[in-house]
Amino acid sequence: MKSPLFLAPLALLALSACGEANKPAAQPSDAAAMPDAKPGITVADGMLSLPVVKGRPGAAYFAVTNGSAAAVTLAAVTIDGAAKAEMHETKGGTMAPLGMIELKPGESVRFERGGKHVMVFDLAETVKAGGTAEMTLTFAGGDKVSVPLKVESMSGAMDMEGHGN
Ligand SMILES: [Cu+2]
């Protein structure tokens, strides 16, 4: 005669015993479970260059500096409003995907036109010149750093990343 429903009233009791039971979305443990912002990492000159032709990829540029005492590894880049972002490097007029990038203590890496860059695919209509888009750098181990990118339109002459599309 055991009913599986027997446990349900107990669970409700346990919840309301916590006191302010009216805020189910804000558990204190959620904040503790979030990845910490990577300490000592700074990002400067963040910029998102919109594609000249709608539907083609844009490119993001920034400089990241490891001000911590340990080497860090930049594993991935994501940008709000973009379906996908990839780290690339242009060399001799052609472009190749970049793997993870290690930064030793004190080291900076600059993503810039004609060099390392982040290719940004399928940008949403909401990403407009004059606005901002949030970029998140994810490091090996799961730490993240988010910064706003200044969104700018790219002049045709500067569309030189060599992707041939
Ligand atoms: Cu590229």
Summary?
This protein is mostly beta strands and about 160 residues long.
Write the layout of secondary structure elements.
Layout: H1 7-16, H2 28-33, E1 41-50, E2 58-66, E3 72-79, E4 82-91, E5 94-97, E6 101-103, E7 108-111, E8 116-123, E9 132-139, E10 144-153
Parallel strand pairs: 1-10
Antiparallel strand pairs: 1-2, 2-7, 2-8, 3-6, 3-9, 4-5, 4-8, 9-10
This protein binds copper (II) ion.
The site of copper (II) ion has 6 residues, from β8.
Spatial shape? globular
The ordered H/E elements are HHEEEEEEEEEE
What is the helix content? under 10%
Biggest sheet descriptor: 10 strands, mixed
CATH level 1 class label: Mainly Beta
Proportion of β residues?
35-45%
Fold-level CATH name: Immunoglobulin-like
Q: Which structural class should the secondary elements be placed in?
A: mainly beta
Q: Helix tally?
A: 2
Number of domains: 1
Question: Mind telling me the CATH superfamily name?
Answer: PCu(A)C copper chaperone
Mean pLDDT: 81
Give me the count of strands.
10
Question: Termini separation (Å)?
Answer: 69 Å
